[in-house]
Amino acid sequence: MTVHWGSLFVVFLVSLGSAVAVVVLVALAMLGLSARAAVDDGTAGPRRSPAAGTARAIVCVAAAAFVVLFGLWVVIGR
What we know:
Keywords: Membrane, Transmembrane, Transmembrane helix. This protein is an all-alpha fold. The protein has helices at residues 5-33, 50-77. It has a domain at 18-35 and 49-78. It is 73% helix and 0% strand.
């Protein structure tokens, strides 16, 4: 029995990349949803509009769901 190290390395890189992508997309979605929170700290910094933050959150969650569902399709559907 031999181990195909090149193929194993490719699987490792793809799984690592997809896991990082899902985590980053969910983090960006949470950042987008934070635009809806009320701020009472008195700072006059730039604020994102709640509609833009919600739209970004929806796009990021949809992209993360696509990555997960595509991975499931590759594993189960083939």
